[in-house]
Write a structure and sequence with these properties.
heterodimer; A: about 425 residues; alpha/beta; Rossmann fold; Ubiquitin-like (UB roll); de novo design (two linked rop proteins); four-stranded parallel sheet; four-stranded mixed sheet; 19 helices; B: alpha+beta; Glutaredoxin; elongated
Amino acid sequence: MAQLTAPKIVSSRSEFSDSHTMSRYLATGGFTGLKKALTMNPEDVAAEVDAASLLGRGGAGFPAGRKWSMLRKAPVTYLVVNGDESEPATFKDHYLVEREPHQLVEGVTIAAYALQVSQAFIYLRGEFALGLERLQQAVNDAYEHGALGSNIFGSNFSLDIVVHPGAGAYICGEETSLIEALEGKRGFPRIKPPYFPAAIGLYGQPTVVNNVETMANMPWIVNNGGAAFAALGEGRSTGTRLFALSGRVKNPGVYELEMVKNTFRDIIFDPALGGGIVGDKKIKAFIPGGVSAPWFGPDDLDTPLGQDEVANKASMLGSGSIVVLDEDSCVVRAAWRITKFFSRESCGQCTPCREGSGWLERIMYRLEHGGGRREDLDLMLDLCDNIAPGLTWPPQQTTICVLGPSIPSSIHSAITMFRDDFIAHVEHNGCPHD
Amino acid sequence: MSYLRADIRQRADELVSLYPERRSAMLPLLHLVQEQDGYLSEEGMAEVAELTGTTPAEVRGTATFYDMYHLEPVGKYVVGVCTNIACLLAGGEEMLEHASATLGCAIGATSADGLFTLEETECLADCNIAPCVQVNHRYVRTTTPETFDALVSDLRAGKREEEIPPHGTLIRVRRSGGLRAPRQQVAAERDAAQKAREARAGGAQ
């Protein structure tokens, strides 16, 4: 049975259809966290976030407190919030920006206070037209309310937030690419090292880049204390997290669940959550954390929804998005479409990714649509091995960013788990499902 | 003489003043050009170059990286149908085919009446209401052929214009308040600092 007793930390207003309005936000505890934070020392606010052991909610799962502490040595110049949510089947930040924009603004302001930054940018995916409007409105509201701008709530702290629209590029979710885009350039990821924008970020200055959901947790952490957050979940995975469930389930949606206390079986099958597979069919496979993640099969359903719990099974919780394939879903078509996505979104800087993704997509296309050959399977694995040598997880890096090594995940998983399906496609000279 | 309309130009100047460096306004400025022209006109890009202190080639080079910018005229309504993984499993490909038939244009093309441009998109992050369709980046949540056709009839009849503005108009909420100093002062200080940096760099060479 799913454990649903944990408090809702970032989606507490989900029952209200006007959760995006300032009046609702103020009526439901809005800005109490910020007001409390402003009475504390900035270092103490940062210490609460450290104590919460909040793992970044963007995909890499790097501890937010540690990211900040890298900067506390040198004064931070900019806080940049990553709202470029583009990992296929990930739609939690979309939810937070459209439904809880004021919470995001408050969270960013708390984080900026802890870091003593006076300029923050929220980089929001360009395709979120409604989200962009609601977020800009929330920023306007906050200025009017005295929660943003000069001398916030009468304190000595001042902050400006600029809402910056993206323009359609998956790669801009990679933080150095996002910074390039924010500087008005093509979104090419920067060569590492330096590995973190903490050293050299926006305009060459020390910069913190945090995900939208990470920021949305700040008001609750300040109000309730880092220890209360850390008491939820287990091990390294503390607090709650938004999980985006999609694919062949009865109730797809965004669910806030306590980390580790629930399993993939719970979220997919519990009547209060996913509700099971459409048409009560059998589950064939599922993707546990965005399309960059290696796939799981029915045997992995009892894996808890936790960072290390999933990592120990050679995949990742990633962006917290779960895609379910049922017994009628064509895994070859699914893997082809994911590969097509990577091919389209490769920025083109590095040869293994640029050439590898296109080549793999063409092979996957002919397997799915006719013309595939038996030897294509070995050819693809060889190609995948060139992009991520050894096909280990986490993958070896041959490219500037992690987009490249993410390409093999779906193909490698599909071939390993469903080799017979590929052979059937070869023998049928196309998709047997068509 | 500004190519951008006076009101758009004013918003463009405001945008530039928000950032520590002018070039940072590049993406929002290009969205503004699309708001005026529906696509990125040569004249519009030239003015963005002037506004950002870059060249038209740099502007074009940047713009071509991003999917949302169109370098050729598009329809009043750009219809995006997602076929990525969650939508694929919910019939996204079939929806795309249906859209092509209903709108009377191929994928990537514009209908003969100039009203619609059809695009196959990557994931639009609305995967619980699949297959996902956007019109001018507004979620329309038509997941069946019937609801899609009803939407198209509405758009043809000029309904829903309030909800779905013409292609290019992205953010209708204007930024109010915010800057601690007058815009002109911020911009002047920033540009003076930039000149000083350039002078120092020039002296070092």
